[in-house]
Amino acid sequence: MRDTLLTLEGLTKAYPGVVANRDVSFDIGKGEIHALLGENGAGKSTLVKTIYGLVKPDSGHMTLDGRRFAPDDPAAARRAGVGMVFQHFSLFDALTVAENIVLGMDAPPSPRAIAAEVRRVSDLYGLPLDPDRTVGDLSAGERQRVEIIRCLLQDPRLLIMDEPTSVLTPQEVDILFTTLRKLSGEGTAILYISHKLSEIAALCEAATVLRLGAVVATCDPRTTAPRDMAELMVGQVLQSPVRAARPAGRMALELRGLSARAPHRFGTALRDITVAVRAGEVLGIGGVAGNGQDELVAALSGEMPVAADMVWFNGSPVGSDPVNTRRANGLLCAPEERLGHAAAPDMTLTENALLTGVTRKGLARRGFLRWPQARHFAQEIIAGFDVRTPGPENTARSLSGGNLQKFVIGREIMQDPQVFVVNQPTWGVDAAAAAAIRQALLTLADNGAAVIVISQDLDELMEISDRFCALTEGRLSEPRPARGLTVDQIGMMLGGAHDMEVAHVAK
Amino acid sequence: MDLTSINPILFFASLMVAATPILLAAIGELVVERAGVLNLGVEGMMITGAVIGFIVAVSTGSPWLGFLGAAVGGALISQVFGLLTQYLLSNQVATGLALTLFGLGLSALMGQGYIGIKAPSFPDLHLPILSDIPYLGPIAFQHDPMVYVGLLIVLAVWLFLNRSRAGLILRAVGENHDAAHALGYNVRRTRMLAIAFGGACAGLGGAYLSLLRVPQWTEGMTAGAGWIALAIVVFASWRPGRLVLGAYLFGGVTVLQLNLQAAGIAIPVEYLSMSPYLATIAVLVIMSAGRSPGSLGKQFHAAR
Question: Is A68 helix (H, G, I), strand (E, B) or coil?
């Protein structure tokens, strides 16, 4: 048994209308890699923010190394030896790597010394990084390295990592795990938050499970089955999506040499994408965000028009057709960003249902809206996809992420698409809602639609796709049957560039 | 028309004077916007500075005290904007516009007894040696001290933003206020200080008009200078160096068109009057490739 580093005793934090943490107590040992598990809204973020000094608990207290620990702000937490790597990177795009690192330090040395320190630490832990580059130009993996190195430069005794692998390729995950094990070996404790149970089983030696703000279980992830841990988190028995065997249908959507320039400075150019999807098929497109996913969806939805003969839909060229023409014909898309792109945050669910459904559901006549039909359509979506909301007059913003995602996807599926393109269907969605969404996508394919799922979650893609391909720097790999693909093969498809980079460091 | 009537030495010398009020107001707004706040009340803060500076200078007889009063007055009125937008979370665009209207009205009220009075004189500097350099001396080294104060402020802002830790924090707050908050920086305080600095600089710019450029008080005497300052900040891509270029370009074309009018050139006066605006916008649009601060104009809620 390890010596105890941090003890949490009876931490409680309530916000108006919701108790985020209820009497949370557990210990983290020195050098221990401790997993914190729980669904969205289980109170994980509030808890780690409490440890990092961003949130003050209503009651309860913490002890670090036997001394009372009550940080007033993150600077105090950092001085006490607590570092944190955020889920949504807390980086500044327009600043350089060195400037970003300086901002996370309380007593920074001179800029030149920082650059040397960054090089030393990045060599030591195998995390290559150039201190003079602008952060906005870095890949997601490199951006995470900036955050990690920023923490490591403070010699932390406890490192908090909030969903660190959600944006990484399998190779980058391996590099990260090597780094974390090395840190743990040096005596740094790590509090590791993740949805991905297989990672936790591979990395962590203790786990605390939160549900609705309270600790419901502690377990040893090395000996507990991932499915059991998942059921502890959700509090119910999980249903795996079922997939019927499907015959190959007619050609539904074809991309022929789709190329497009990057739409803005931090965008990605699409390079010669050729792929075909048949009716009744699910094509999974994997890859780390920022490799052309948004641009590909824009080219398919019509937000970014391309040459007509680059996109073929039901045998006719539609590459230059506008969005509504494609919609009317049955090519529907659900973009990644729920609030602001897929849904207008301050408009009601009825209005949001109208916005994309107006043509296919006949919700307007002679330029006038048919509100009763629109309301009925919204109610159908709410009922059909188990959207938890008091009613269609609530705004999109008032829904939780998972519920809004079910609404957004349900809205398109209820319009009976022939081709449905969805980007990150379950990003930030809890396990039960994610399972429901995946099942809905499979059912849609069973009913004869072609479905393209773009996702960073490889487990999800393996679960639902018939064929898999990877999008890297705007290029799409040759699709392969998803069944039987190994993680290594997927990793190779996802990123040749990263392999070279690792090799470069090793020499 | 007789172009030889334009004296090049006099032309360049008056260019620096014409550019200074805009330069002062713009450098303040640049700092505000780098901190992520869009304050459209520059015009209102300028005219408030103009009237307060004038009143203080007339009643004390000291132009220096006038400028000090203008800076304090501009900073105070900017804090109204700061309080509304940073603590009460009002909309920045609407509040900024309201500040402009408020400043115009307030200054007209305060300045009622001061119309037609002449400001105390503010003698030009005569720097030994430098001022006696032929051509260059009269152009660059025989001005009132505020011309140099303005340039020093620009230099100081550049050093602050690019060389100091406090400047880095200010840029970080403007780039991504949520991340800055997560790292433990005080977003509101940083922004309130930036807004105060912006107000003080706008006040100085306004007082430069009422104490040196005109020099007397008339209602609405800023005549859009604050809006030009705002435009120059954007077109200068939020960089102090380009800001000087933009302000001097605007000042240059203003003086040139006045000279051309005096020389009797056969172009309608209206076209000449609009030329400084067109020229400044054209040149800076061609040059601009910058990216605005990431959090510019967005509201910050600490609880999220």
Answer: strand
Radius of gyration of the CA atoms of chain A, in A: 24
Cβ distance of B175 and A92 shorter than 8 Å: yes
Distance of CA A210 to the CA centre of its chain: 20
> What ipTM goes with this model?
0.77
Q: How far apart are CA A38 and CA A44, in angstroms?
A: 7
Provide φ and ψ at A113, rounded to 5°.
-65, -35
Fold entry, domain A251-505? Rossmann fold (3.40.50)
Q: If you average pLDDT over each of A182-191, B64-73, B139-148, B183-192, which comes out highest?
A: B64-73
Tell me the torsion sign for CA atoms A229, A230, A233, A237: negative
Cβ of B183 and A92 within 8 Å? Answer: no
Q: Using one digit for the tens of pLDDT, what is the confidence trace for A392-447?
A: 998 888 887 778 889 999 999 999 999 999 998 987 777 778 888 999 999 999 88
The number of beta carbons lying within 10 Å of the beta carbon of residue A27 is 17
Domain locations in chain A? Answer: 4-234, 251-505
CA A26 to CA A5: how far, in whole Å?
11
Establish how many alpha carbons lie within 13 A of residue B47's alpha carbon, considering only the half-sphere containing its beta carbon.
26
Which residues in chain A have Cβ-Cβ distances shorter than 8 Å to B176? Answer: 90-93
Q: Is A286 on the interface with B (CB under 8 A)?
A: no
Burial class (CB within 10 angstroms; exposed 0-12, middle 13-18, buried 19+) of A240:
exposed
> Are A94 and B168 an interchain contact pair (Cβ–Cβ within 8 Å)?
no
Nearest CA in chain B to A109: B165
The rounded distance, in Å, linking the Cα atoms of A448 and A330 is 12
* Tokens (6 digits) for B73: 């007055």
Q: Give the global pTM.
A: 0.70
Distance between B294 CA and the closest CA of chain A, angstroms: 8
Q: What DSSP designation does A381 have?
A: H
Complete domains list, chain B, with CATH? 3-114+143-287 (1.10.3470)
Q: Does A94 touch chain B (CB under 8 A)?
A: yes
Question: Reduced to 3 states, what is the DSSP secondary structure of residue A217?
Answer: strand
At residue A115, what are phi and psi to the nearest 5 degrees?
-60, -40
Distance CA A60, CA A24 (A): 8
**Residue A20 DSSP one-character state:** E
Q: Which CATH number fits domain A4-234: 3.40.50.2000, 3.40.50.80, 3.40.1010.20, 3.40.50.300?
A: 3.40.50.300
